[in-house]
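Posting here for the record, re: 1-O-phosphono-alpha-D-glucopyranose.
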Amino acid sequence: MTKRIRKAVFPVAGLGTRFLPATKAIPKEMLTIVDRPVVQHVVDEARAAGIEHFVFVTGRNKAVIEDHFDMAYELDDTLGRRGKLKELEALKADLPAAGATSFTRQQAPLGLGHAVWCARDIIGDEPFALLLPDMLHHTFGKGCLAEMIDAFEKHGGNHIAVAPVPEDQTHQYGIVGVEDVKAKVSRITKMVEKPARGTAPSNLHITGRYILQPTIFNLLANQETGAGGEIQLTDSMIALSHQERFHAVRFDGDIYDTGSKIGFLTANLAYGLSRGDLGPQLRAEVERLLER
Ligand code: G1P
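Prediction output follows.
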């Protein structure tokens, strides 16, 4: 029987240099998409998929993320006394259960593989989900991680969400080759981190959602630095793929890289336009601007 996926890791230690000066004092994960921080959207996706424990790999100047996922006693009290019960209920609904969050620090920015390895003791000996908070997966259907957990329950092993990118962008991502390019779930035959232009095995990029077996931690422990001089998760996944099955789960919704300015602005529009309370008015404002 496959073990249930109970825990998810969120690497949130990155400096956010692409977003300076906004990220000088505020972690990039706390920038808002409409009225929710980026990291909250990703935690929402994990909760909707049934995740019970949320593991944040943080760094210096990220303490506000811990506060965000804690109860704000004075705020709750003030909202209650002022009769702002809707806001109070919404905050309570977002609050993770007591003991359902863990925070550990990546002491130096040595790469994504190293950040994941920092969570090893908290994860222990069970398969886990990994969600890169920069990458928002927007869909009107089932969330990306929920789809992956369905695939995991059927096939076991390791799973990576993938989606097509234009050929001229493959060098910016991890790219996989698969047995059946059109299938929703397919066996991965090849993986490469940021392939040189013209050498990618396909146009399917790793979108930032993973289900991994805990055996990855032993490989990460001995991992040499790879592309960009960093300890790359993809290199350990390649090593693990020689021992265990890896499946690609195709995500059909929209993906926004909120670590880039265009991705961040577009995500705000897309999430705003899809909101019942804001969508129609925002649409009218955008149309007005476009007519100028
Ligand atoms: C990381 C992964 C890469 C993946 C990407 C998705 O790269 O190493 O495989 O495609 O996230 O955003 P990074 O963006 O940290 O360079």
